[in-house]
Amino acid sequence: MALRLGGLADLDPTAVPLPVGTEVTTRVDRVLESGIREKGASARVTAVDGDHVEVLFLDGKRATFLRAEVVPRKLGVARYAQRRAAAWDQLRPCVVIDTVVGSRAWGVAEEGSDTDHRGVFVLPMAWTTGLVDPTLDLTSVDGSASYWEIGKAIRQALRADPNTLEMLFASPVVVDPLGAELVAIRHTFLSHEIYGAFGRYALSQLDRLEHNQRLAEHRITIIGWLRDDPSLELGAAAERLVDAARIVAPTRADAIARARDYIKQLYRSMYDQGVIAANDWSSLRAVAATELELPRDLRPKNAYNLIRLLDLAIRWLTGEPPEVRVSESLRPTLLAIKRGEVPMPDVMALARDLTPRLEAAREASPLPRHADVALAERVLRAAREEAARRALTATRGPWGADAPPPPEARFDD
Fold it and tell me: Domains, the chain, ranges and CATH?
């Protein structure tokens, strides 16, 4: 047994919030252009608008349901959604730093771009003194706003986490004086750690993009074959892929075996993404005739953010003012990548070209080896002590007289 926020007896799966991406099961039939989709179908939430929930089925079809017409597939998801919503409702007033981030902060927003927020909150004292571990993250139902507990935010900043540093330097708004000192010392978080946090992360994403590029090419090829010949078997597809992808192996049999592995990786990946109903060849064949979305890792947004991160790491390591807005010289290229106008191989080549500059920037960087951890700790202690003072003196506000009650510790049923 574990001490948590209570059991599931008081949860209504037809009412708990459904974050975007939640796997759900439909409770009613729905008429689609292709026919009737019977109740019990599996889908993922793609948007929530009041009482209406838009979902994406495994075959790529979309539909809209009333909230009560879909339920989370797993009770654990319902528990998580309930806790996340409760934490958001109770602790949202405790936000002390609020920053608009993403494309609007980077200077590459276009019509229809989302407005995303990140920031910092401080827990009321009573939330830190009980048995229940307090939440360290606040996230809105639609995922557009995320806030970190101040201790977590500082730890992330000390290791030069890109999202945290961008939040601190993208014109942060100090909502309460509890967040003022953290913003005031933000420059002390700039260090050689940027190379590892920004650079190695970006390069790992590049390797992942290159891997998924190969997978996507196989996906396009194989689905094209299946559309032309729905009866195509796995073995025959593997033999054709050897020649189409120019797979090199010691023998023809080895090459065919490798091609079979590639195909299995393909439908396993598509199953994990919820695109096909099962992890097998027949499920891939079943959806081949549908309009399939571009794989998540190959969407232009992921690619242009890779280039942006590498450029940002280079500029900050060389000692340029820590501005998150992209340079005017790079902006047209990023916009072209974002619009899908630059072939993915060209994007990856550009990323590879930036690597030597990243190495050189680290070698010549005027930044200190590490952030000022002692100063960061003093700021953290001061913020928590001030929150405690407001609680003990019952000062008006979300840390004092108006503080939300902490979660109750009790055993799960």
Answer: 3-73 (2.30.30.40), 86-191+369-402 (3.30.460)
